[in-house]
Predict the structure.
Amino acid sequence: MLSAIATLTQRLEQALVQAFGDDLAGTDPVLVPASNPKFGDYQANCAMALAKRLKDKPRAIAEKIVANLAVTDICEPPEIAGPGFINLRLQTSYLEAQLAAIEGDERLGVAPVTSPQKVIVDFSSPNIAKEMHVGHLRSTIIGDSIARVLEFVGHDVLRLNHVGDWGTQFGMLITHLRTACPEALTGSEHVAIGDLVAFYKQAKQRFDEDEDFKARSRAAVVELQSGDDSARQAWQVLCDQSRQEFQKIYDRLDIRVTERGESFYNTLLSDVVEGLKTQSLLVEDQGAQVVFLDGFTNKAGDPQPLIIQKSNGGFNYATTDLAAIRYRTQQDGAERILYVVDAGQANHFNQVFQVAGKAGWVPEKVELSHVPFGLVQGEDGKKFKTRSGETVRLKDLLDEAVGRARTDLESRIAAEERQESDEFIQSVAETVGLGAVKYADLSQNRTSNYIFSYDKMLALQGNTAPYLLYAYVRVQGISRKGGIDWQNLGADAAIHLEDESEFALAKHILQLDEVITEVAQDLYPNRLCQYLFELSQKFNQFYDRCSVLQAEERQRTSRLMLCDLTARTLQLGLSLLGIQVLERM
RNA sequence: GGGCCUUUAGCUCAGAGGAUAGAGCAACCGCCUUCUAAGCGGUCGGUCACAGGUUCGAAUCCUGUAAGGCCCGCCA
């Protein structure tokens, strides 16, 4: 099914050609949703822009377009307003037909893309030997949602967890453990993740303070990267421990991601060096192998290099990222590679992409894209930390959100004198709490910093997960009360729009397609959130004004169908955000 | 020194070339004998950081300035 905006755009393009000839073929009619409902549903803004080119007044141009515009099957007669806006209002019969068409469609009218792409979404990426913390929250949630949207529209998505399982941190850790806790490196389960974190901190401290330790750590990295047995074994133990912990978080958040860490590319690193050398891009500078960059200078104003191979022979993450680009384009056949990584690494990605481009490793049809997001800050605007100043562990953060949701739910149940099982309470608290954490993050434009607030995300009113979940629950309440079988509303069941709030709701439901298409392209999940919030608002207005179960027949069935479509749209939309719905709350 | 990001209502944020700049929260005022009031309606609230420019039209694009944040050689 073609969305209204797509159909009307086509018709306007045809009208432009008919009115002004083939020269206008391919002209964008600039069709956008109306800025104000009193102007109708859509407005075409091209007449003003064409005035100069066609040497005529905008209103005259608009009139010619309208005279050639064939939309009697879709719209009321178009109106020309202001300087030359063409205002279009959808016919009730068209809306009703569109609703009937999506009623039987599981995808609610959102057609899969005609040319699916192989897309890699690189997200989450915690570090081995550390616990997942608040710093991994946004990448994990945003990356998952982007992957879900791209999968839904029909792309072949490979979700990759580029875990930090390689590099200097392991040199540090292994070197430290060899003296501090050798049994941890033997392969048996001697060390819990919490201990590892403590060891990591100790190792980091020694690394920063002790030059000798630093040198031995770097040597250990080289051992590891060259395949030394004892280093490899120690590394394996550390990775297994961490992996189990990560998986608990992913399971809880209902996130699938394939681990392919930095170590995966180890054997390909020397090829990167060779490739750059062959193309004379590689230069030796202060003992390191580097590529000088265009457009980047250091503090002294000299051209800045990207280090490919360190002076001790070790590689660093730029090298790994270059190897990954080659592997992903050549072996995985990726056409679009998305890096859901914090905005602080914009420089790094620009540099790596530049070098990959210079080396000819980015085929023309491949898009490399850093999908940046801002920092998580506390309510004081500073870095989000615990009261004692520690980094907030992701597990604790989720527990806190669920715990608060539970407390709130319990007091509500008590106030309403309801009887609910503990199982119900825990299940609702989990869905509400985790949904709130995800929604709060996703509902904000990802590029800006994000002020984290339990109170705001769990608020029952406003643009929050609980508000959306409640709208869904309301439909389920109608269903229970009326004993509704949504599959069998009757053979002649149809939607008839009458009340103003029904029109508003129906039109909004039909815009799902446009929103999802936009998110799949621009990767801003907050637009989907905004859509779902407005859908919930429009549903609540409808719910307030129009009784459903008590309505006379024909209207009753029509309204039930609107309820059903609303609930299904909410469920689908929330699922693309990684949020589950509830029958009761 | 260079690069990137941010600056819109008291607070948190939408808005990415169109008509009178929106929402939520907060504050205040209404609405439950009726499908869960976790709701709905209303009032209040703006020099879109500043200065130029492009355009028929700019919060939106360009240039500059200011403030804040992040990053910049052997960590990732």
The two ends of chain A are 35 Å apart (CA to CA). Chain A has a mean pLDDT of 92. Residues 229-253 of chain A form the longest helix (25 residues). The first strand of chain A starts at residue 31 and ends at 33.
